[in-house]
Amino acid sequence: MKPRQIKEGIFWLGSIDWDRRLFDALIPLPDGTTYNAYLVHGKDKTVLLDTVDIPLVSEILEQLQGVEKIDFVVSHHAEPDHSGGVFAVLEKYPAAKAICTAKCKAMLMDRFEIPEDRFMTVDDGQTLDIGGRTLEFLHLPWVHWPETMATYLKEDKILFSCDLFGSHIAGTDLFVRDKPRVFEAAKRYFAEIMMPFSKLIAKHLERLAPYDIELIAPSHGSLYDEPSFIVDAYKKWVLGKPENLVVIPYVSMHGSTRMMVDILTDELVLRGVSVMRFDLSEVDIGKLAMALVDAATIVVATPTVLTGPHPKALYAVALANLIRPKARFASIIGSYGWGTKVVEQIAAALPNLKVEILPPVLGKGIPKKEEKAALAGLAEQIAKKHESL
Ligand code: FEO
After folding, report:
1. What is the mean predicted confidence (pLDDT) over 117-138?
2. Pocket of ligand 1 from Cβ distances under 6 Å
3. What percent of the chain is modeled with pLDDT above 70?
4. Cis peptide bond prior to 77, omega within 30° of 0
5. Which band of pLDDT confidence, cut at 50, 70 and 90, is reported for residue 314?
6. Do domains 4-239 and 243-384 have the same CATH topology?
7. N or C: which end of the chain has fewer CB within 10 A?
8. Would you kindly state where each structural domain of the chain is located, as residue ranges?
9. Cα(299)–Cα(200) distance, rounded to whole angstroms?
10. Is the confidence at residue 339, as pLDDT, over 90?
11. Distance between terminal CA atoms of the chain?
12. Which residue owns the Cα nearest ligand 1 atom 3?
């Protein structure tokens, strides 16, 4: 992809990774992704903001052909999908310096062995005049590593937000055009990457509120020429109350646990509670993560395998524990053959969640009268708890 002009003197550079299907060896990328870099020319200095992932560095070097000098490479975030080309750009432009936070500098030196004298660290709020254009560096830690920052380009009212507000979509829309598609991708991205840091993001949103921002340019996905579209979505995801929704990740080996899930689903729906179910035998964990952004309750449904939960149920629980959704309640249901310790093991795997555990429902074999009544009771309790939110 050739460089694309955003406005006079400001260009999108980077790569569209059409075929990538997994990030961090964990996160599904059903629509690929982009790595956005930006070239900003001032009257005196030229700045490159971020680069691309390591396998695609040759693309950004090609895009820089004809750019005679780069004075600074801003590295907002040390993760290699953005910093993968910093070293190569510094080598191409021997007078250039890498601008980043002190923490980012240490990480880049660890990962890429960039010499210390090639760095210029910046404080929070520090500005850089590049001739008719001013960059203000905003430390925004934990979006989503401890070293992260963003850059506000004052005269042009552009926020270069790096991962914050990003979305994993490989596409040619430089600016957001297909809003529903971007909304879903941005929510998936928020759920997987940003949700664990919701409290800090709330603070960052407050901090950014006074800035006059006409364009948000993230490091993944399309640019937001209507910033309120993504900022309002983030406010809802971060600050909004959990919804009247139960998410049920489940796995069933011989159908008994699935029967319990069916009964609980019916009982919840009868009481006006929405349900989203995820069969863990073939789940897209991104979809599960997205549902967890909104849910007030999580019910894990698992059979007992040699006294413990099914490993796929434990995987889903570990994921929920990592991404820290705002759910307030949780429970466990499932079938067992002769003995079980699933409740203790699942509850112990959720230390990060601030949830009230509602009485679990476990039964031998298929659900009988007693288990059916207990599932109805659990649904009743959930409905009442949701009303109290
Ligand atoms: Fe897109 Fe955290 O790197």
Report:
1. 98
2. 77, 79, 81-82, 144, 163, 219-220
3. 100
4. no
5. very high
6. no
7. C
8. 4-239, 243-384
9. 27
10. yes
11. 49
12. 79
